[in-house]
Amino acid sequence: MRIGFFGGSFDPPHLGHFGIGHAAAEALSLDRILFAPTGRQPLKTKGASASFADRLSMVSLLCELQPPSAHADFEPSSVDAPHADGSPNYTVDTLIKLHVNTSPDDSLFVIVGADAFLDLRRWRSPDSLLQLAEWIVVNRPGVSLQQLQSLKLTPEQLSRVHVLEGVHEPASATDIRELLRVGSDCSGLLPGSILNYIRAHRLYGT
Q: How many structural domains comprise the chain?
């Protein structure tokens, strides 16, 4: 199996996330993608606006958009749930956990935005991260992938980095939260099921 791990705040999950998952599955022939909200991100001082339970529920709704006939299964995952002691969720620990719970024959891919990947040297155990998984780096507007040179990756490490171009993400989760706060229905940004969930649970000032 070729398994994609797509972690992040998902605060809220939106159609841009779905498009990234679809493009990654097509480009790298993935069989499964785990959409995994992060309990507490180490490099973000401000926590998520919605609770982990709400973000996981919304991710479940996003995954339901994937038709049964699609090659890749989209699955919500609690593998990166908050720790009982409130400590940060480090990606290296999550990947080790995934390796324990998958077959040795499985290939693991991490899906990440280029802006976050260019911060890799600030992550815990960056060289181990590149051993534990291959990386699908989604290019962002205004980000030059020539900056990859600053990471000082070896040729072997670079061979495990796959750049995904041409994925259009119409708005960020930050933009969507602000639009919701001022009363926008976010047409074209959120699936109706997630918008209904947000309204029913009075999230983001709705």
A: 1
In whole numbers, what is the pLDDT of the chain averaged over residues? Answer: 93
Q: Is residue 101 part of a domain?
A: yes
Are the CB atoms for 180 and 6 separated by under 8 Å? no
What CATH number is attached to the domain comprising 169? Answer: 3.40.50.620
Q: How much is the pLDDT for 157?
A: 94
Residue 137 class from Cβ within 10 Å (0-12 exposed, 13-18 middle, 19+ buried)? buried
For residue 114, being part of any structural domain is answered with yes
Q: What are residue 196's phi and psi, to 5 degrees? A: -65, -40
pLDDT, tens digit (0-9, with 9 covering 90-100), for 22-77:
999 999 999 999 999 999 999 887 888 999 999 999 999 999 999 988 999 999 99
Do the domain assignments include residue 158?
yes
Are the CB atoms for 91 and 129 separated by under 8 Å? yes
Put the strands of the sheet holding 134-138 in their side by side order.
73-76, 32-37, 2-8, 107-113, 134-138, 161-164
Residue 206 domain-assigned (yes or no): no
pTM of the predicted model over 0.90: yes
Query: Backbone dihedral region of 188: left (phi > 0), alpha (psi from -120 to 50 degrees) or beta?
Result: left
Tokens standing for residue 176? 């969507």
